[in-house]
Design a protein that fits this description.
It is globular, with a radius of gyration of 20 Å. It has about 200 residues and is α+β, with helices and mostly antiparallel strands. A hairpin with a 4-residue loop joins β3 and β4. It has helices spanning about 5-30, 45-65, 75-80, 85-100, 150-155, 160-165, 170-175, 180-200; strands at about 35-40, 105-115, 115-120, 125, 125-135, 145-150. The strands form two sheets. The chain has a four-stranded mixed beta sheet with strand order 2-5-1-6. Strands 3-4 form a two-stranded antiparallel ribbon. The longest helix is centred in the first third of the chain and has 28 residues, at about 5-30. It is built from eight helices and six strands; from the N terminus they run αβαααβββββαααα.
C-alpha cells in the first residue's frame, strides 16, 4: 500500500523525535553520571531550623573538602562517601547537639530527582542524580543543595579545569553553561524530557 505524503511526513517526524529523545536522554544520563549532589533538608522553615541546616551543611562540606581532594572520578568520590556515612552522621549529630537540639538525622547516598537548578555560573537540568542526602528531624523544611563532586559547593563555579578533572565533554560543559541559543534549546529539551520520564515513572 502506497503511503500518502502526510503519512510519510508523520512517520518521518516520529522517527526524528525518537532519535532526538534518545540522544538527549543519553546526554543527560552522561552528565548526571559524573556528578554527586549534596542535599540537606531542614526540620522546618523556622529561622532557627534553617540556620541549623546551614551549620550542618558547613560542617559536612568542611569535612568532605579534604576527604574528596584525591577523588579523580565520581566512582572514587562515591566510594569515599559511602565509606564515611557513619562519620558524616556523627558530624551532623554533633552540630545538632551543640545547638541544643534533639532532632534525629539521617544520612544516605541515594539517587534523587532534582528540578532544574541554577548555580552561579551554570545550570543543571532536571533529572536523577546521585545525592548525599541529609535529612534533619522531620525533614519538612526548605532544603539546600549543590554539587559536592566536583567541588562546586566550595567555589560556586564549574570551569574548564574542574570539568576536565571529572571528564565532562565539551558538549556537556557547553550544555550546562548554556552559552549559545542552541545549547539553551538542548537544555530545555533535556529538562522537559526528564520531567516527562519522572511523570511516567521511569
Amino acid at each position: 500500500m502506497k503511503l500518502k505524503p502526510i503519512e510519510l511526513a508523520l512517520i518521518f517526524a516520529l522517527v526524528i523525535t525518537v532519535l532526538f529523545s534518545t540522544s538527549l536522554s543519553a546526554e543527560a544520563d552522561g552528565l548526571s553520571s559524573k556528578l554527586i549532589r549534596l542535599h540537606v533538608v531542614a526540620d522546618s522553615d523556622s529561622d532557627e531550623e534553617q540556620s541549623l541546616k546551614l551549620k550542618v551543611r558547613d560542617a559536612v562540606l568542611s569535612y568532605l573538602e579534604s576527604e574528596l581532594a584525591e577523588a579523580e572520578s565520581r566512582d572514587d568520590a562515591e566510594a569515599l562517601i559511602n565509606g564515611r556515612i557513619d562519620v558524616l552522621q556523627k558530624i551532623a549529630e554533633g552540630v545538632i547537639a551543640s545547638e541544643g537540639k534533639t532532632h534525629g538525622v539521617t544520612v544516605s547516598l541515594t539517587e534523587e530527582f532534582f528540578q532544574e537548578t541554577d548555580y552561579d555560573t551554570f545550570s543543571l537540568p532536571s533529572g536523577r542524580y546521585l545525592s548525599l542526602r541529609i535529612v534533619i528531624g522531620s525533614g519538612k523544611g526548605h532544603n539546600w543543595w549543590c554539587v559536592v563532586f566536583p567541588k562546586v559547593c566550595y567555589a560556586g563555579i564549574l570551569n574548564d579545569e574542574s570539568s576536565a578533572e571529572i571528564g565532562l565533554t565539551e558538549g556537556e560543559l557547553s550544555l550546562i553553561t548554556r552559552d549559545s541559543r542552541e545549547t539553551v534549546i538542548r537544555f530545555r529539551a533535556i529538562d522537559l524530557l526528564a520531567r516527562l520520564k519522572k511523570l511516567l515513572g521511569f
